[in-house]
Specification:
The chain is α/β, with parallel strands linked by helices and 214 residues long. 38% of the residues lie in helices and 20% in strands. It has a single domain (10-211), classed as Rossmann fold (3-Layer(aba) Sandwich), CATH 3.40.50. The protein has helices spanning 20-34, 59-71, 92-106, 121-133, 161-171, 185-199; strands spanning 10-17, 38-45, 78-80, 110-114, 138-142, 155-159, 203-211.
């Protein structure tokens, strides 16, 4: 029995940096929207200081708009904040207040955010403050395995080839990040195959269950 029906559900994806949400749950976003969910996406840093010199400093803000549009997220469902990369922990109270504003405006049923085992300081901040802001929502932690010291594969979401293709296409919008190994289509597909193999299907994304409300 499927105890989760995404129809009419409101889903919020929290991305410490542009591209984290697509990497962590991009294919699931596509699946849920197909099945009737209303998806919102909030990115907290466009990492202007880390943009390669051949691109304009605001390039990641441009790329996240393109990537989320490929996934099917409406322009007015995308929130992009300009906090300084690697220093989100310096403004955690301000971030908490932004999260509470999102909670009050959106009242999400499900929140996706980085795993509690993610050791990147910006990811930790968004997850820790996200737990405080959304304690009355289901919370699933997505995996970014290059930042995870461990990962609890508590929940698997089955995805299809077309969902995975849209995820890969969306990530290809991040031209500034193209040289990173984890952005390659081969890596993205292979991880989906591994996670699918664990549950006997072709492809899947997996998540840490931080809070599950039925």
């Amino acid at each position: 029995m499927n105890i989760f029906n995404p129809a009419n559900k409101r889903i919020l994806v929290l991305a410490p940096h542009t591209d984290d949400g697509e990497l962590g749950c991009g294919a699931s976003i596509v699946r849920f929207m197909e099945e009737g969910a209303d998806v919102y996406y909030a990115a907290f840093s466009t990492a202007d200081e880390s943009v390669p010199s051949e691109f304009p400093k605001d390039q990641l803000a441009i790329e996240v708009k393109e990537a989320t549009k490929i996934l099917g997220i409406a322009d007015n469902h995308l929130f992009v904040f300009q906090y300084q990369v690697r220093k989100l922990n310096y403004v955690r109270q301000e971030i908490l207040e932004k999260l509470i504003e999102l909670r009050e405006d959106l009242k999400p049923d499900i929140v996706f955010l980085p795993s509690s085992a993610d050791f990147h300081q910006d990811h930790q901040t968004v997850t820790q403050e996200g737990l405080r802001a959304f304690k009355f929502s289901t919370i699933l932690g997505y995996e970014l395995i290059w930042n995870n010291r461990s990962f609890s594969t508590d929940c698997f979401i089955k995805i299809k080839e077309e969902h995975l293709h849209r995820k890969i296409t969306a990530l290809s919008a991040y031209r500034t990040q193209a040289k990173k190994t984890y952005m390659s289509p081969e890596f993205i597909r292979s991880l989906a195959v591994v996670r699918g193999t664990q549950i006997g299907v072709a492809f899947a994304e997996t998540f840490e269950v931080i809070r599950w409300i039925i």
